[in-house]
């Protein structure tokens, strides 16, 4: 008779309440998942758009041509960032449920907040990479065009032969050309996309389908972007009753103000960057992310799949 | 807390959380938004009449935070109107563009150029329109360009490009040299203003009835500021005024009449 096995198994290692490395692992797996969904292919479309706009010959002056290239490319970057934030975030959780990855993940010692944060960070990494690539392409294009226009203005003249008019024209081209502050405009688009992604995660914890999440998120985005404009319009067009005012107040409180995140437009048009404002916007973005993730957790924490 | 979490429906707690966060952030966001509009980082909401004139797609784009894309599209559309000489449509397009991006001086400069220079030039030569109507429209477009330039300057007080374009309309189309001199006077001292602005003040004051003496004093002052101002045009203008005022030879500037291309500057 053999002796009973008396060796005891060591007690299960205590799982820490929160682990950043688990969040990071989930973020990287989300990044891989999104890359496999061929999300970076849109960068080709962006490059084609940039080339097309760069070669349109409708502007009345080189300065205006540069201004148009900047506005269209940074506008397209902003559009991509928020649209991608909505679509990618809305697709991720339902897809994990559909292919049963979610069950595998949640059966491991992974907290639900870590799962949500991992998904959010994965989306944000993809957006950050895409915006950086687009910024580099865009900066290259603007600088190339700027140098071309300046060379055209100078022609064969030597520096002593340059007239006052030419000097003024060059200054105007440089004013509308590339500035390092444009990187802050890209950061503004990223901040907006981050808030949009956190709102979408909250909605996707409630929603039953990706389509519903996408539609509602786009609506929230539009309302959040327009409520200042709509409020002015509505108050001017209606009897300005207490009910109208209450309704508008409710919208303002519940829906995030996305208009405030559109400061990339001002920077692209040459406004001076105020560092304090950028820091405050960074803080506000952080506050949005924390609050919306906590609210998402509230619905996701004991959700059964 | 646990009991509250278990008993209350989750959506109620979420709405409550959103409302509390909304109440905390709204005053901060309002202050921040106003500060950012003041520092030109954010664009002010477009004017109501511009919103009413927008097509549905342009309005949706504007609502969706795509103001710069919508305005770029409208600039393309306006260029089409310019190519087809559809001046009224061009005017409507720019009414929306300038309302969407009031702080982009290029838009104001372009609309002033289109209406003040191109539309008026078209009225001078378009023989398909009766002459009295051409004259009426010529004045209408030129005055409209002036009005738009003033609106643009109000939005962009330091703009040199809008003022340069306005001066061109006054000079070339309205032949109002007193107003031209006034605009060049405004240009002097603005950041990035052309160096010639100060000289042009004198040239156009000289053509403004009753202000010739002022022009003479102004141009002499520039002449004695240094050699860099001794351009042929400035010397000719001073010499013409010296002739006009019959200035004593000892008080005249030492330069002879320069040889200008065409030689048309010298007065008899």
List keywords for this structure.
heterodimer; A: 305 residues; mainly alpha; 74% helix; 0% strand; globular; B: 268 residues; 13 helices
Short recap of the structure:
The complex is a heterodimer of chains A (305) and B (268). Chain A is mainly α and 305 residues long. Chain A is built from eleven helices and no strands.
What does this structure look like?
- The complex is a heterodimer of chains A (305) and B (268).
- Chain A is built from 11 helices and no strands.
- Chain A is mainly α.
- Chain A has one domain.
- The radius of gyration of chain A is 25 Å and the shape is globular.
- The model of chain A has no long low-confidence stretch (mean pLDDT 86).
- By secondary structure, chain B is mainly alpha-helical.
- Chain B contains 13 helices and no strands.
- Chain B has helices at 2-7, 10-38, 48-53, 56-63, 67-83, 87-100, 105-125, 131-155, 160-173, 177-187, 197-205, 212-223, 232-245.
- In chain B, helix 4 (56-63) runs antiparallel to helix 5 and helix 11 (197-205) runs antiparallel to helix 12 (212-223).
- The longest helix of chain B is centred in the first third of the chain and has 29 residues, at 10-38.
- The radius of gyration of chain B is 27 Å and the shape is elongated.
- The model of chain B has no long low-confidence stretch (mean pLDDT 88).
- The interface between A and B is large, with 64 and 55 residues.
- Number of continuous helical runs of chain A: 11
Helix share of residues of chain A? over 70%
Number of domains of chain A: 1
How would you sum up the global shape of chain B?
elongated
Please provide the ordered H/E string of secondary-structure elements of chain B.
HHHHHHHHHHHHH
N-to-C CA distance of chain B: 99 Å
From the helix content, strand content and strand pairing of chain A, which structural class follows?
mainly alpha
Query: How many runs of DSSP E, i.e. beta strands of chain B?
Result: 0
Mean pLDDT of chain A: 86
Secondary-structure-derived class of chain B: mainly alpha
What would the principal axes of the Cα set say about the shape of chain A? Answer: globular
Percent strand of chain B: under 5%
Radius of gyration of chain A equals 25 Å
Low-confidence parts of chain B: none
- Seen as an oligomer or otherwise, the chain set is heterodimer
């Amino acid at each position: 008779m053999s002796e009973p096995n008396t060796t005891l198994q060591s007690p299960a290692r205590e799982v820490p309440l929160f682990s950043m490395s688990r969040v990071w692992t989930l973020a990287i797996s989300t990044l891989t998942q999104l890359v496999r969904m061929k999300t970076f292919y849109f960068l080709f479309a962006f490059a084609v758009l940039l080339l097309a706009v760069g070669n349109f010959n409708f502007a009345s002056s080189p300065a205006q041509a540069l201004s148009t290239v900047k506005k269209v490319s940074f506008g397209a970057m902003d559009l991509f960032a928020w649209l991608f934030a909505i679509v990618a975030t809305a697709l991720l959780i339902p897809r994990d449920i559909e292919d049963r990855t979610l069950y595998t993940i949640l059966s491991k010692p992974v907290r639900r907040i870590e799962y949500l944060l991992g998904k959010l960070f994965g989306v944000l990494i993809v957006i950050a990479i895409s915006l950086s690539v687009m910024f580099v392409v865009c900066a290259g294009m603007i600088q190339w065009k700027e140098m071309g226009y300046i060379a055209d203005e100078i022609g064969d003249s030597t520096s002593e032969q340059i007239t006052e008019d030419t000097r003024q024209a060059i200054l105007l081209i440089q004013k509308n050309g590339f500035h390092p502050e444009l990187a802050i405009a890209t950061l503004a688009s990223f901040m907006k996309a981050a808030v949009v992604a956190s709102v979408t995660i909250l909605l996707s914890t409630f929603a039953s389908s990706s389509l519903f999440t996408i539609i509602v998120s786009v609506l929230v985005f539009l309302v959040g972007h327009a409520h200042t404009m709509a409020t002015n319009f509505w108050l001017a067009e209606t009897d300005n009753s207490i009910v109208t005012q209450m309704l508008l107040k409710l919208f303002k409180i519940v829906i995030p103000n996305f208009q405030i995140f559109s400061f990339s437009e001002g920077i692209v048009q040459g406004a001076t960057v105020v560092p304090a404002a950028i820091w405050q916007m960074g803080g506000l973005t952080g506050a949005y992310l924390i609050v919306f993730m906590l609210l998402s957790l509230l619905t996701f924490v004991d959700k059964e799949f | 807390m646990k009991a509250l979490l278990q008993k209350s429906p989750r959506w109620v707690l979420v709405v409550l959380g959103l409302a509390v966060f909304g109440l905390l952030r709204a005053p901060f966001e309002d202050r921040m938004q106003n500060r950012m509009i003041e520092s030109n980082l954010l664009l002010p909401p477009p004017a109501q009449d511009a919103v009413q004139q927008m097509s549905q797609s342009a309005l949706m784009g504007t609502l969706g935070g795509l103001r710069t894309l919508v305005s770029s599209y409208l600039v393309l559309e306006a260029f089409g109107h310019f190519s087809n000489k559809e001046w009224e449509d061009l005017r409507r397009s720019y009414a929306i563009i300038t309302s969407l991006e009031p702080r982009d001086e290029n838009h104001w400069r372009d609309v002033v150029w289109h209406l003040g220079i191109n539309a008026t030039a078209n009225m001078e030569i378009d023989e398909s329109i009766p002459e009295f109507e051409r004259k009426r429209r010529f004045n209408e477009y030129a005055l409209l360009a002036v009005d738009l330039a003033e609106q643009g300057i109000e939005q962009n007080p330091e703009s040199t490009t809008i003022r340069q374009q306005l001066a061109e309309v006054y000079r070339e189309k309205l032949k109002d040299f007193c107003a031209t001199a006034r605009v060049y006077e405004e240009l002097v001292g603005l950041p990035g203003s052309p160096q010639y602005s100060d000289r042009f003040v004198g040239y156009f004051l000289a053509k403004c009835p009753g202000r010739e003496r002022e022009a003479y004093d102004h141009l002499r002052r520039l002449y004695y500021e240094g050699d860099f101002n001794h351009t042929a045009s400035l010397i000719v203008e001073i010499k013409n005024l010296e002739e006009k005022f019959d200035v004593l030879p000892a008080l005249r500037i030492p330069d002879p009449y320069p040889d200008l291309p065409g030689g048309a500057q010298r007065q008899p």
